[in-house]
């Protein structure tokens, strides 16, 4: 398998995301410079695998006209929900990014498309920013640490959306310390104060 890398970076331009292929982009704690649409550092950068667009364009009418239409900040190659884990830290350009949670909100999406993403597990994920700096399209993502190899994005999606009644899995994921606080709160609420040993 090839080294994963950033295929495109998207900067918000009015109500759409435009690709910026050759420009070094500053990455701060709340996201890409120009894309500061959240105050939640756990959702600083929405990352989406390029290969999913082939799937969507086979079933959607009309198909997407270009990458970036799902609102991603970063489109990547050689990465996916089955291989990316919570807490994975990557060096990208001058920055260090850490995987925090799958995407589960409907920001920039209509509800029907959001539900399709959840049902298929083709959700993408969010990064928090551990080290601010610059990156650009074509940058490699070099894995620095993988503290939770069992908690892939795919596994997290299954616990959150498919196996809601499995309290042991819910408990285990809720105690993954590098999972975003918003997800941990939902899971702990589902447990209702019950401790699973």
Task: Give an overview in words.
The protein has helices at residues 52-59, 111-120, 153-162, 167-174, 181-191; strands spanning 5-13, 16-19, 25-28, 31-32, 45-49, 74-77, 89-92, 95-102, 125-131, 133-135, 141-145. The mean pLDDT is 87. The protein has 197 residues and is α+β, with helices and mostly antiparallel strands. The strands form two sheets. An eight-stranded mixed sheet has the order 2-1-6-5-9-8-7-11. A three-stranded antiparallel sheet has the order 4-3-10, with no helix packed on it. Helix 4 (167-174) packs antiparallel against helix 5. The protein contains five helices and eleven strands; from the N terminus they run E-E-E-E-E-H-E-E-E-H-E-E-E-H-H-H. The protein has a single domain (5-147), classed as PK beta-barrel domain-like (M1 Pyruvate Kinase, Domain 3, Beta Barrel), CATH 2.40.33. 24% of the residues lie in helices and 28% in strands. Pfam families: MOSC (PF03473), YiiM_3-alpha (PF03475).
- Mean pLDDT across residues: 87
For the secondary structure, the number of strands is 11
What kind of sheet is the major sheet? 8 strands, mixed
SSE order: EEEEEHEEEHEEEHHH
CATH superfamily: PK beta-barrel domain-like
CATH topology name, in short, is M1 Pyruvate Kinase, Domain 3
The CATH architecture name reads Beta Barrel
Q: List the strand order in the largest sheet.
A: 2-1-6-5-9-8-7-11
* Tally of helical runs: 5
SS class: alpha+beta
User: Which residues sit in consecutive blocks of at least 5 with pLDDT less than 50?
Assistant: none
Helix content percent band? 10-25%
Note the gap between the termini.
Answer: 38 Å
Morphology call? globular
Instruction: Assign the CATH class.
Output: Mainly Beta
Q: What would you report as the Rg, rounded to the nearest angstrom?
A: 16 Å
What is the total domain count?
A: 1
Proportion in β-strands: 25-35%
